[in-house]
Amino acid sequence: MLSISPNITLIQTRILLLGLFSSILLAACGSSAQATNRRNDSPTGDINQGQELHTAYCVGCHSREQGKSSIGPPVVGLVSRSAETITSDDYKGKAETPAGYIRESIMEPGTYVVPGYPDGLMPNYSNTLSQDDLENLVSYLMTYQ
Ligand code: HEC
Fold first, then answer.
1. Which of 13, 35, 128, 139 ranks highest by number of CB atoms within 10 Å?
2. Pocket of ligand 1 contains residue 43 by CB under 6 Å
């Protein structure tokens, strides 16, 4: 009996590891599918917190005043501009809605560079903003029809 038990233990360990591995794999696939689905969802964040984040991180380059020149595109008219962008031939991103486009612009800024503005200036926030921060920001920016 004693000579068999190490083998059984080994098999058990393998089964356990296999189970663990496939559940990690499943979790990874699940979350990427979720991210793709979320891309175009309506934002569910807090508009006031989004405004605070915008004041802290974005307004220096994205003016909120009509007609005021800024380093990046102004936020006035962002939603209708986004709707035009995603249907233009030049757009190669994955967004299907203005909210999806705004999310993509913040998390993967190189996907589409707004004509007339320099490439590489818009920071990539995918490692600095939490999912909640992102939703708050998108909710706030969606008020700029
Ligand atoms: C250092 C300057 C800078 C900062 C800071 C910055 N951006 Fe940008 N952003 C740009 C520039 C330049 C562009 C246009 C070029 C491009 O598309 O990459 C841009 C493009 C965008 C666009 C697409 C706009 C459009 O009209 O299609 C969105 C949305 C955006 N930024 C959101 C944000 C948000 C939200 C923040 C803060 C979390 C932020 N940006 C911070 C410079 C900046």
1. 139
2. no
